[in-house]
Amino acid sequence: TSGCVNTSGQLKIRVEKPLSESMVTRILDSVENAAASKPKIDRFITRFSKVYTPIVVTLALVTAIIPSLVTGNWHQWIYTAITFLVMSCPCALVLSVPLAFFSGIGAGSKKGILFKGGVAMEALSNLGAVVMDKTGTVTEGNFKLQNIVSTGSISADELLRITASCEQFSTHPIAVSIVTAAQEKGISLEKPASLEEIAGHGISASLAAGKVLCGNQKLMDENGVAFDSAPIDVGYGSEVFLAVDGKLAGYLVISDTLKADAKSAIARLKKMGLRTVMLTGDAQESAEAVAKMAGIDEVHAKLLPQDKLSIMTKLREQNGNVMFVGDGINDAPALTRADMGIAIGAGTDIAIDAADVVLMKSRLSDVPAAIRLSRATLRNIHENLFWAFFYNVI
After folding, report:
1. 133 is catalytic
2. Which of 110, 207, 278, 370 is the most exposed place for a label (fewest CB within 10 A)?
3. What's the pTM?
4. What whole-number distance in Å separates Cα of residue 89 and Cα of residue 332?
5. How many C-beta neighbours within 10 Å does residue 9 have?
6. Catalytic residue among 42, 133, 282, 366
7. Model pLDDT for residues 283-333, shown as the tens digit of each residue
8. CA-to-CA dists, residue 335 to 28, 71, 192, 305, angstroms
9. In what order do the strands lie in the sheet with 275-279?
């Protein structure tokens, strides 16, 4: 499947389409061909000035000519007309909008928040819901050992040593996380006398402790290992069970880690009156656990990229404008289709190209910061327009 990494063995591949017909190229083309446009408020001021300026010039000519013909005092009325023309010039009115956008975009870039123009900033100030991907956006995107539970007489450190000894030759991300955890604790590993890796199940090995089985529940069930003393629900994460000589010794829980600023970022988004939603292709239990820890309002799991698009359409109908935050190739269609797309800077190039805003520091807390900055910029523009109109009316 596109996007997967082959960690062992070899693949035989037949190319069926040239690069020009690939999904990646089509996504890039749709992004590159999107018409760049001015913000709505900027377009309004431009239209206003096209009407306002000719009216002012006409009034100035009338002021200069008609009273002069009546009174014969051309110097006074031409001087008056020029004074009127200078005071009525819409410079402040027209310049207040783009300069405020430039100021907001500049302020964002200093914080590592890159806005792709004023349209992005304007759209970000008027949202109803924030939709997020899970892996790499709400979570760090790397596996880490979370918990070690012993169900027998073997200690937690010994359980980790035996498991890491079995997993040390495996390239599976979960195996790598277990070996890394053992190395961080300074635990020396044993080289198995024999080892067999069973695809989709785990590992069978011979160590000094005895015949060891290390893997998922399927491996335990196939070898008749009883689960009487082990809880079925291990919470958020993937479990790796360990059995020694046919008896369950314990289990390790490995999971992706929540980003340090995820909770506070979600809380700030809620304070702004925005609904938070998470869309992911991961299992329902894992997705719900992450959503609960982060404080996300709504979660949808086991989704394909096209499923994300259909759910976003429903969310738009319920909440108004929708923003999507993502980092992967899978997220590019959703980033393009959303009213507002934000890409994590550490994500793929395609996601960054498809997004309206890029968070260079890859912090989720920059999402509410970007919204706050866009709202402040729009507020500043409205203040500018008010005083410019007020001045011109006087």
Report:
1. yes
2. 110
3. 0.66
4. 45
5. 6
6. 133
7. 777 788 889 989 999 999 888 777 888 888 888 888 888 999 988 777 878
8. 12, 67, 48, 11
9. 113-115, 357-359, 340-344, 322-326, 129-133, 275-279, 298-300
